[in-house]
Amino acid sequence: MFRLINHAGRACLENNGQRFDLATLANDAALSDPMVAIARHRDLHAWQAGLTGRSSDGIVDAALLHPPSPRPQKIFGIGVNYHSHAAEMNVALPPAPLTFAKFPSCLSGARSEIALSGDHVDWEVELVVVIGDRCRNVSVGDAWTHVAGLTLGQDISDRILQSTGRPAQFCLAKSFDTYGPIGPAIVSVDSFDNPDDIEISCDISGVRMQQARTKDLIFSVPRLVAYLSSICTLLPGDLIFTGTPEGVGRARGLLLKPGDEIVSNATLIGTLRNRCVRGTGAVLA
After folding, report:
1. In whole angstroms, what is the distance from residue 161 CA to residue 148 CA?
2. Number of domains in the chain
3. pLDDT in tens, 83-136
4. Both 97 and 234 in a single domain?
5. Is residue 15 part of a domain?
6. What DSSP assignment string belongs to 195-261?
7. What integer pLDDT is reported at residue 168 of this predicted model?
8. What range does the domain containing 141 cover?
9. Whole-angstrom Cα distance, residue 254 to residue 172?
10. Contact (Cβ atoms closer than 8 angstroms) between residue 1 and residue 191
């Protein structure tokens, strides 16, 4: 089992709140890059197991936790992928994963501020899959073996931009700078008793808004990996935001405002704590 973090731009393994610089552990300078570390995910187990009795490089400073996969080539978002969310939005279950893109420039860290683009910005807590291998046409049965680990994310969404015109502007509405906080760590799949049944939750300024288990996914992680890899080659560090459960602001008639704190949690993965500040919106030509 391993916990891989991006601490101030360097790949580290985390153990009991202590950080261990991966390049130092492996005597390989290339492993300071979290993207290189993700591609070596099978080796991370042995390095994590060797931490016992070793002096750490210091405590983990949550303010320095950058996105654990900082430069993915691709970020997939999956819409309407919880039975509970489909019910609250009163929409039919999709026949195939409803897929959109988030641009990598939206990624931010576990304690990063979220710069709101207006008065109609929503939260969406999501389990995030981190691909570990270059792979294509992966079977459902083999899918988990190509996953480096799991992390947590918020698919922050500007609902006005999203609904401007037809078709909807999902990609842009969900790709403002800071609209993709992820972390705090990439946790290996074997850390979970059942990686298909993980609890996630989201609180807004101390009020619980979302709480669900990933067993409620319409399309499971293995099915998503198989589906996406049948269309394009997946690469180490690519991310899949797997969808959000019921409790989004749009369904509640509530939206984010400056000063709100979004606290997201997932079993074993940990906590994101992101404060909202006033930002700037889209400028129409």
Report:
1. 33
2. 2
3. 999 999 889 999 999 999 999 999 999 999 999 999 999 999 999 999 999 999
4. yes
5. yes
6. TTS-EEEEEETTEEEEEEEGGGBSS-HHHHHHHHHTTS-B-TT-EEE----S--HHHHT----TT-E
7. 81
8. 75-278
9. 21
10. yes
